Amino acid sequence: MSKRLDMIQLSVVTNITAFDSLKPAWLALQEACLGTSIFLGWDWQRLWWKHYGHGRDLRILTARQNGNIVGILPLYLETYRKAGGLFAARKLRQVGVGGDTAPDDLGALFAPGYENETSAAMAEHLSKVLTDWDILDWTDLPPQSPLVPALQQHFSQSDIRATCEVTAPITFGVLPDSWESYRRSLSRNRRETMGRKRRKFESQPDAQVITVNTLDELDGAFDRLAELHRLRWTGRTEQPGFSSPEYRGFHRDVMRALLPQGRLRLMKLNMGGCTIAMLYCMRHRDTFCFFQSGFDPAYAEYSPGDVLLGYAVEHAIAEGCHVFDMLKGEHDYKRHFFQQDRRNVELRAFRPGLIDLAYRLKDAWSARASRRPELGESKPSPARGEASSATAEQRR
């Protein structure tokens, strides 16, 4: 064990008061951390807990050296019940995951230079000290995170069974310095189609693209976004976004927090005095993140969603962003704008015991049920990320 690792002290935050006391250190670490995301930020994490934490138990892992916080890993425990409550397991999950909204990039916050030592200390703590979980179920970890190999190593030494899978692809694009350069990067057919749709929209009365910039506008804009999203997805998915009071309360609060910081990008496409499409985006450092959208199908002939997304790309380039991240959810329209993709990692682990045995039997039964007798081989099952990607955008 290195001297620096030996000096790292771990503690676990289990209540709201202690959670709130972390805010100054969290914000400082968030600013300094090289591999963070908007979903690991204080606003997303704390507000998610405000709206979705009921019935769950906090387990935020904090790492200190010489009294200074050098790592934060936000987690919680929940009881997962099956078979009418006869089967129950304690799941250790990431704050921000669960309920009916989902982030994309999670993990831990690390002070620069402390990533490896802190990951090793956290992995050891989760293996040997924080033992009140049966299943560890983590999603959307960056593949380069030192947490992943550290956990795999310590789990194997503790006879904890672990599986690691890559998620479905996430579409993104590296942005050029100008809108014209971006347009030239597209195929001729795509470029002409984009131009034709934009000209058709701009020829309509009172055609406008508006970005919400004040808190006074926010509530009305939020309500219209929720309405447009439901118009777009009702009948096409079982539970569109903005369906639950938790979802609406959480995202309204997130917008209220991000707008004064200059990190919210809430865009409207107006025509004839009516908002016909909206985009809910966020900026994190030099990345423009597309999170949610909606449009009125009554105006489908004007391709409002496609047109507004084109304006959003132009807007991101104009404000100097280097990356446009479409976030999770595999949809063809995303490939109309960008072709690059990335993948995150999902980690699942089981402590030895009856819960692990039950899951082993369940997996074995599922594998047997999916076997094709005529070929004598199993059907490939989709990765967990792929299974959920079809509804990721609708339910975010």
Q: Can you describe what's shown?
A:
With 396 residues, this protein is α+β, with helices and mostly antiparallel strands. The chain has two domains: 3-168 and 343-395, Aminopeptidase (3-Layer(aba) Sandwich); 171-340, 3-Layer(aba) Sandwich (Aminopeptidase), CATH 3.40.630.30. The chain contains 14 helices and 19 strands. The protein has helices at 3-7, 16-21, 23-32, 42-52, 115-128, 147-157, 179-185, 188-202, 215-233, 245-258, 304-318, 332-335, 354-369, 384-395, and strands spanning 9-13, 57-58, 60-65, 68-73, 75-82, 87-94, 109-110, 135-141, 161-166, 170-174, 208-211, 264-271, 274-284, 287-295, 323-325, 340-342, 345-350, 371-372, 377-378. The strands form four sheets. It has a seven-stranded mixed sheet with strand order 11-12-13-14-15-10-16. α5 packs parallel to α6, α8 (188-202) crosses α11 and α9 (215-233) packs across α10 (245-258). It is globular, with a radius of gyration of 23 Å. It starts with a helix and ends with a helix.
